[in-house]
Amino acid sequence: MGRQYGSIRRRSMTAKTAHTIADFTARLPGGQEVSLADKLGKVVLVVNTASKCGYTPQYEGLEALWREMGPRGFEILAFPCNQFGGQEPGSAAEIESFCKVNFGLSFPLMDKIDVNGPQAAPLYEWLKSGARGILLTRSIKWNFTKFLVDRQGRVVRRYAPKAPPHMLQQDILALL
C-alpha cells in the first residue's frame, strides 16, 4: 500500500481519466477521508507545503488570501510534503501546531503526501498533467508549488514556489 501518508485517492478514476478535482478524495491529518467534490463551485489553490523551508513564510500570505477571499468562495488545500530536503519531517499534529502558533493558520491542512515519484498522490499527478512547469516539465521542483483550480474544478494555472501568494490575488479574483 506504500507510505502511510499517501493520502489522496481517486474515487473511481485514475489521474489520467479524471476530469475535475471532484474526482478525488483526500485525507485530513487525523486520517478522515474527505471527498473533494465539495470544491466544485469554489476557486481552490492547491499547494505542497513544508515547515522548515525558506518559503515557509508564505503561510502568512496564504492565510491573508484565505481570510480576504474565503467568504467569496475561495479555498486553500495545503498538503505537507517531505520530499524536498526533508523539510517537513514532523507528524500531522506537529505540523498543524507549528502552523497555527507561528502563522495563525485557520485554513485546513491536509495529511502529508508525496507529490513526485511512484507514491505521488493521484491528485498531484492530475494537477501536474493539467498545468506543466518550466519547459513543460511535470515534476514538482520544490515546496510551495501552487496550482489554481477554477469553479468548474479544472486546473487553470501553476505557480513556481517563489511566487508569493499576494501575486496570485488578481488571478484568483478573476475566477471568483
What are the SSEs and their pairings?
Blueprint: E1 9-10, E2 24-27, E3 33-35, E4 43-49, H1 58-69, E5 74-80, H2 92-103, H3 122-130, E6 146-149, E7 155-159, H4 169-175
Parallel strand pairs: 4-5
Antiparallel strand pairs: 1-2, 2-3, 4-6, 6-7
Domain Thioredoxin: 15-176
Family: Belongs to the glutathione peroxidase family.
Protein name: Glutathione peroxidase
The dominant shape is globular
Pick out the low-confidence regions.
Answer: 1-13
CATH topology: Glutaredoxin
CATH class: Alpha Beta
Measured on Cα atoms, how large is the radius of gyration? 15 Å
CATH superfamily: Glutaredoxin
CATH architecture: 3-Layer(aba) Sandwich
Mean pLDDT: 89
**Fraction in helix:** 10-25%
Question: Strand portion, in percent?
Answer: 15-25%
The arrangement of helices and strands along the chain is EEEEHEHHEEH
Q: Could you tell me the number of beta strands?
A: 7
Domain Thioredoxin: 15-176
Protein name: Glutathione peroxidase
Keywords: Oxidoreductase, Peroxidase
Family: Belongs to the glutathione peroxidase family.
Textual characterization of the structure:
By secondary structure, the chain is α+β, with helices and mostly antiparallel strands. The chain has one domain: 3-Layer(aba) Sandwich (Glutaredoxin). The protein is built from 4 helices and 7 strands, in the order ββββαβααββα. The strands form 2 sheets. Strands 5-4-6-7 form a 4-stranded mixed sheet, sandwiched between helices. Strands 1-2-3 form a 3-stranded antiparallel sheet, with no helix packed on it. The longest helix is centred in the middle third of the chain and has 12 residues, at 58-69. It is globular. The chain starts with 8 loop residues before the first strand and ends with a helix.
